[in-house]
């Protein structure tokens, strides 16, 4: 008789124990216990504002978002009702301060794409911080330019940089600059740089594949010497151009804007040979060529011969 009573009791107790174990498993925060590289992979796919909102989940999550490997600061990070450019930068600065105070580990990518009016000393300090963190992709896109800011020399000591986009800065190469060994993509927009510095920069990026130059200022001529280049786009004012030993170039897009000055620089190469041949005569792998504006007139400043060199006999793409 006792066994008949104990058996149902044992079954009931076992059932409750199983339920308790299930409840315990449900209460475990499995996401918080994921490895950081997995969490980072998840969070960097969210807009930064949404990633920052995870700070309210628990004390464990309070500063997780500040340790991301990628930060994209765009209009989604700023409240819609904030339209003043200086105020928008204040909002961005709040994010930067949080990251600088709490971040540990590397930062691989940073992108600034919010139309604002930055405090240049803040921006300078932030760029230095990113270089110390081993940044690989540094992208500074269009913002409200009041004056050009001096790019800190520390940028040129970033050994891991593979993608660099700069906007609205003064670019002066320090004497200690040895080159960017890992840089594959370079875009300069509204950048103030002299011709010799630009040539030296391009020469010393041995794996550079894509080069874009938009509205560069203070240029006299452009000389591109890089045997690894595959894509070049130029939309800027200049007086002369030379493409040397760029045998892998497959796509060239050049739009020549008028110079503000009335005089034209006579570069040493000018006048020696037909400009069309001088500029493009050494290129053998072109499959896309787009030329517009004053550049067509520039190419025709000397008589074009009846027979073009061998590289030009290859068919051009559409």
Automatic annotation (TrEMBL):
Looking at the record, the residues that make up the F-box/LRR-repeat protein 15/At3g58940/PEG3-like LRR domain are 123-294
- Domain F-box stretches: 31-69
Q: Which InterPro entries match?
A: F-box-like_dom_sf (IPR036047), F-box_dom (IPR001810), LRR_dom_sf (IPR032675), LRR_FXL15/At3g58940/PEG3-like (IPR055411)
Entries under PANTHER family matching the protein: F-BOX DOMAIN-CONTAINING PROTEIN, F-BOX PROTEIN-LIKE
State the name under which the record lists this protein. Answer: F-BOX PROTEIN-LIKE
Species, as recorded:
Salix purpurea
